[in-house]
Amino acid sequence: MVVGYWRLAGITSGLACAAGALQAQLLVRAALGARHTSTLVHDSIITPFVLRPALAPALAVTAATRLDERWTAQVTLDFSTSTLERHDADGTTTGLGRVSTLAFTVGLRRPLGAGFAAGAGVGGLKYLPAGETGIFRSGAGGVLGLAGAVVSYAPPRVGGEARYDVHRFITPALRSEGFTSARTVHRIALALRAGRGGAAGAGGAAGAAP
């Protein structure tokens, strides 16, 4: 009984130390800013027009852990929402309802020095339209492949980041209208971010990857 008790106590102590070490190495960071998205659709019925989301608020939450002195592994959940707008050749703009995006990426980051860091990642993006109308009348389709990069500046508590990603966009409704290939869409976000966790103070670990 005594041997068993001390063995159990040793296992419990070891698990507690491991959990404490993991918590000390984990950084959780939130970034809030604005995102510009390039054209989703360019077409001409009578006159040319383009469809693209308006400037959108963007929220990203990242969990990161150090791999070694230079590299940090990260996973990021990114959400933005705005009005889908039609821009006509005469300069008029028409709102076509709200559309949101949800993206998940995994990536690597490394410090560049002087508080700067850079990273890259890959993942998937899902369009979430408010209603099944227009280019989303047959749904938004599946998850779209996504690749991106980030450059961040990380003073002690609140920093900034510039985030870029790219994906190919098409929907079932566009395919039914004769669009045979997806369009390359670029997104750029500028954000302020704050993080907490043991990794934040090591080697600029408050920098980000997508």
Describe the structure.
There is one protein chain. With 210 residues, this protein is mainly β. It has a single domain, classed as Beta Barrel (Porin), CATH 2.40.160. Helix content is 14%, strand content 58%. The chain is built from two helices and ten strands. It has helices spanning 2-25, 172-176, and strands spanning 26-37, 41-44, 48-53, 56-66, 72-88, 93-113, 116-129, 144-153, 158-169, 183-197. Strands 1-4-5-6-7-8-9-10 form an eight-stranded antiparallel barrel. The longest helix has 24 residues, at 2-25. The chain is elongated, with a radius of gyration of 22 Å. The N and C termini lie far apart (52 Å). Residues 1-24 and 199-210 have low confidence and may be disordered.
Structural class computed from helices and strand pairing: mainly beta
In CATH, the topology is named Porin
The helix/strand series, from N terminus to C terminus, equals HEEEEEEEEEHE
For the record, the count of structural domains works out to 1
Q: Sheet with the most strands?
A: 8 strands, antiparallel, barrel
| CATH class (first level) name | Mainly Beta
What integer value in Å does the Rg equal?
22 Å
